[in-house]
Amino acid sequence: MSLRYLLPVFPLRNLINNGAFLNNIRNTNNNALPTLCRSWSTTNSTETKTEDTVKKKKTVPIPKITLLSGDNLTITTLEEAQKLSKRRDLKLVKINDLDSKTQRPVYKMMTATEYHAEDVKQKAAKKELRKKSIKGEKVLMIGQNIAEHDLQVHINKIKKWVGKRYEVRIVINGDSNNTEKAESVYKLIENSLNKEARIVQKRQKGSDIKFQLLPPKTTEEEEKL
């Protein structure tokens, strides 16, 4: 508080003679100073922390892809590639999940004709891979009245064939008057081989049950199929 603002209110002699009043003014200013300092220090500290927080925030990099379009190769984001293919009325197809050299997925923009041709090509490759993974075929006919011991012998034989990468075709000869027996034989085979083989194409033809047993998929097959 400045002394000149008090002069119009109080006579000068009273101010000079009243030492207690002047001391109160000094004490008021002295007491307010630490509070002002603390306030400034707190504000300054908060601003510094905010600046540090902003500096520490890192921008998450957007994954890039390799985009093929005809003879052109572009490095871009998947979102941009999708927008581009939509503008050009083309199909965006993933060719490779992860390129070993660039460590990026590979996409290609195709016309409808190119897409169809690529689809046919991939299906043919899958079919060829299945053929290569199977050494040959074995056929086994089992009667529905087979004894449990004899059935177990057949199951052990099937395990060996499947282990050697053979496809096993099985026919269970049933009785039209009692189809439950043939079904129970099938269930026993299924439960015994559910880990060693894959059962596919089960079908009922008259009183007979037909199905195939295939070797489990290899890691290479699972990656390509």
Quick structural overview:
By secondary structure, the chain is α/β, with parallel strands linked by helices. The chain folds into three domains: 3-56; 64-131, no CATH class; 134-224, Translation initiation factor 3 (IF-3), C-terminal domain (Translation Initiation Factor IF3, 2-Layer Sandwich), CATH 3.30.110. It contains seven helices and eight strands; from the N terminus they run ααββαββαβαβαββα.
Characterize the structure shown.
There is one protein chain. With 225 residues, the protein is α/β, with parallel strands linked by helices. It folds into three domains: 3-56; 64-131, no CATH class; 134-224, Translation initiation factor 3 (IF-3), C-terminal domain (Translation Initiation Factor IF3, 2-Layer Sandwich). It has helices spanning 12-17, 19-56, 78-87, 112-133, 148-163, 179-193, 219-224, and strands at residues 64-69, 72-77, 91-96, 106-110, 136-143, 166-173, 198-205, 208-214. A four-stranded mixed sheet has the order 2-1-4-3. A four-stranded mixed sheet has the order 5-6-8-7, with helices on one face. The longest helix is centred in the N-terminal third of the chain and has 38 residues, at 19-56.
